[in-house]
Amino acid sequence: MRLLKYTNDGKFKLIEFLQRDIPRRYAILSHRWEAEEVTLKNMTDGTGKTMAGYRKIQFCGEQARRDGLQYFWIDTCCIDKSNSTELAEAINSMFHWYREATRCYVYMSDVSRVSSYSVGISSQLRESAFRRSKWFTRGWTLQELIAPASVEFFSKEGELLGNKTSLERQICDVTGVPHKALRGGSLSDFSVTERMAWAATRETTREEDMAYSLLGIFDVNMSLIYGEGGEKAFKRLREEIEKVSKGTKRKDFSVPFSLMNISDVEHFVAREAELAEIHARLSSDGSRQTVVLHGLGGIGKTQLSVAYAKRHKENYSAIFWLNMKDENTLKQSFARIARQISREHLSASRLSNMDTDENLDEVVDAVKAWLSLPDNTRWLMIYDNYDNPRLPGNTDPQAVDIRQFLPESYQGSIIITTRSSQIRIGHPIRIRKLEDVRDSLAILSNESRRSGLMNDPDAVELAKELDGLPLALATAGAYLDQVAISLSDYRRLYKESWVQLQEFSPELSLYEDRTLYSTWQISFDHVKQQNESSAKLLCFWAYFDSQDLWQELLQHGASDDPDWVKQVAKDELTFHNAMRVLSNHGLVEVDTSTQDLIEPHGYSIHGCVHAWTVSVLNQTWDRDLARLAVKFVASHVPGEEAIRPWPTQRRLLQHATRCLYLISTGLCADDGIAWECHRLGFLFANQGKLVEAEQMYQRALQGNKEVLGPEHTSTLNTVNNLGNLYKNQGKLAEAEQMYQRALQGYKKALGLNHTSTLATVNNLGVLYKNQGKLVEAEQMYQRALQGYEKALGPEHTSTLRTVNNLGVLYKDQGKLVEAEQMYQRALQGYEKALGPEHTSTLRTVNNLGVLYANQGKLVEAEQIYQRALQGKEKAWGPEHILTLDTVNNLGALYADQGKLVEAEEMYQRALQGYKKAWGPKYILTLDILNNLGVLYKNQGKLVKAEQMYQQALQGYKKALGPEHTSTLRTVNNLGVLYKNQGKLVEAEKMYQQVLQGFEKALGPESVKTYVPALDTTQNLAILYKQLGRVSEAEEAYSRVLYGLELVLGKSNSRFQDVAAALGALRSDNGH
């Protein structure tokens, strides 16, 4: 063994010792090999001092000297790796060398005390840096952790982080190595499988070293054959291990592993994280460790326990299974265990001489006593189906107290499975649904014995509907295995005849006598005994969506609402107590969605349990309860003046969708719900669900007309909102009809200067602007502005909204000075009335940024956008759609500045945000796709550009129709792309399609002054010129000039550019 010695002159000296002469006291280094490690050759020829690895040698030598140690060892420079004989001897001796070392220093080059351990940094952050160190991932460092008695951890600066004792908890959590092994316990006390598991996630640079690094862990020796491969190296390692361990078994207490009375699934799916957590929690030095697996009935707790037992059976001397269905069944399980033990251990006299069919209480005591014998510490007891625990409030005489049936000595390992979340015996692990649809499909495929389900759309949809519930998936698979029926027909039956389908499904041996809903019925019966309101609340849940039911949602009741609803929702404590009873029985859980919330978190139930509440608990459907649910949801929709409506709107959307289903299918009493339909329409419209919004508005309109008359203000409010909806859908003619109808009604009912009348006038202005009727738009805005100033004053927010709209109009007209004046007036007014961070203020700030961008003031535009972005992120969060609007604008600005990488980053952020918020088919999502197409075109990525345009185009057509202006804008962009690709015929078709669409949407007169139509006409003129079709090019340029003169005037730079192009065309062709 070579050792380094720190000499008095500060240098290092290599000294070689024979085995018998190795000093009794020396230090040893553990580290990760990195760039420029100092080898033995570098040390001997003096070239090592300039290498990065020399720092480790200095650290180890100086630390050893501080600890009073003359000698130290480092693997990089104390072994001649060019000598294969020496290398093999060193690797076979290495565990011994580390074990005999006085001190082991772990040098963690990726943990910095300066950044992670400085004053003011939380202990949690310091611990996180330690846990993340790559040192824990290397194969060789396992023996370097276990073998030495003293292990100290140092940062890359050489500062002490702690030692193996002070950091024991963290080390156990990270590595899975039990306390006993870290404290120097005999490694032979741990099974081969368990020791192999410690190294399972570690890596080595050379694949053979994964086997060679474990020689000391298993106390074996073997030759090194680099090049043989990892598989052969491990095969030789196992052979050596078998030679050493052959003929041994756990002394006195081994019982063969058996699942004879347990239904076992052949292909267990997923749950790797849960299996790892169970293993980590049950790893110990023999002292008692308990894990409680709790969750919904049918979620897979029992099968998870089976999978764990099968995977880790080598870790235990005995594994016993107990059924806790009731006390008698539990005692019968103990009798079976007693027979197992007595067969293997005749010396266990108390058990072998006992009649296990007689006094079961004595049998239980005898088994518990055997499990409590000294050194009998490595057993595993699985207490399955502890679903009726004796707890405060549970008056069921059949309830079981598990504590009476646990071994008395504090040793061994225990797994408990239960639906109750109230068991407080060990470490709780909540078993949730399968999140990955591929795992659900695997269960369906295994149980149905049908292949190819991964690529079957009906199978995928069925898996999603069964929502990751193993029992539901197994039930469906068993039915599909025995019945000649397609997946699509099964889905239809699932929706139409849920109860009958479950009754006719075959029994599953894996789940004994349980069916899909009998397991929940038992829990429901217990709930009714404990809290009648909890049971009623679960029944009422059928009329809402399955996800996120919260207290405030149920607080909009009237005096004639059911008393139990008013009682449950009256205060926070009562509501949570009712939910707690349901949660304790595994029927509901706290909703863990991370979306921005205004009100507290709610609760959710599994989709299959929700189907059960609909089909079983509400077999007699109550249309009045459905109407009550609709009223609660509609009443909670935030009003137009709400400061932060978006979080609540998003939260309500799934419940609103459920309400829409109840109303449209006749499952809800539809008398007197016109107001509710109007509010739901408003919600859908604000969330971009335009089809759903129209359905609700039309029902509200019909109801109000029948009850209140066509000219009642409530009817007119819905007519006005329908106008807004049609405008957003691109149905501009229908929108104008609605606005005009609302306007005439408001005039008659409320007068010219009423704010409702003026709001519709303002809306007409927006419509006219979108139609390109800029003169008419300005007239409407001016009329609304004058009315608002007279009725509400010049600084009212409604007045300022119209001022802002005028700014947008002036910008589109090219009146940039006037636009800036309007924006500045609106901005100052909003800041005074609402503050600089209010959302209305920020909208105007954003508009001002757009203006500056159009003026070419790109620096000022970026500053304004950044202000808007910071304010919106603070007010709404980074993922709100209005925040993303400004992100999108920044992308466009960066594109104009030629910062294409930054532009793409902004567009991608906006795209992912819109997809997450509203899905891939939402209008703003499609806008970003269009913008990305433009960006890729400018980058010369024409194939990607076309992909983006086509995605946007298909989405626009489906969402808005083929003649909406957004659809036509993308068609125009495709035309530009085709022209750049030289596909001139295709380009012309695109341009002609755009112009025909604009004319149909806006009318032949409006299209003459509509700027987007003029853009396409100019593109067409350029194309005609390129094709040599001079007369057509001249005619197109002339149309553009005519429109620009009316809209922008002859002094506008764009007008002059087009006039110059037309002049050049005529000159070149002798005109």
What labels describe this entry?
58% helix, 6% strand, 1071 residues, 48 helices, mainly alpha, 14 strands, 5-stranded parallel beta sheet
Q: Residue-averaged pLDDT, rounded?
A: 86
Structural class: mainly alpha
Provide the gyration radius in Å. Answer: 38 Å
Q: Segments where pLDDT lies below 50 for 5+ residues? A: 115-123, 508-514
Polypeptide structure, described:
This protein is mainly alpha-helical and 1071 residues long. Helices cover 58% and strands 6% of the residues. It is built from 48 helices and 14 strands. Helix 18 (437-448) packs parallel to helix 20 (470-482). The radius of gyration is 38 Å and the shape is globular. 45% of the residues are buried. Mean pLDDT is 86; it is low at 115-123 and 508-514.
Topology overview:
Elements lengths: L1 E5 L5 E5 L10 E4 L9 H6 L8 H13 L4 E3 L1 H4 L5 H17 L2 E5 L5 H4 L6 H9 L9 H6 L4 E4 L5 E4 L4 H8 L3 H4 L9 H7 L10 H4 L17 H16 L26 H11 L6 E6 L6 H11 L6 E6 L3 H18 L4 H4 L7 H12 L7 E6 L28 E6 L8 E4 L6 H12 L8 H9 L4 H13 L4 H10 L1 H7 L13 H13 L1 H9 L22 H6 L3 H13 L4 E2 L12 E2 L2 H11 L5 H13 L10 H19 L9 H13 L3 H18 L5 H17 L2 H19 L4 H16 L3 H18 L5 H17 L2 H18 L5 H16 L3 H19 L4 H16 L3 H19 L4 H16 L3 H19 L4 H16 L3 H19 L8 H17 L2 H18 L5 H16 L3
Parallel strand pairs: 3-4, 3-5, 5-6, 8-11, 8-12, 9-10, 10-11
Antiparallel strand pairs: 1-2, 1-4, 6-7, 13-14
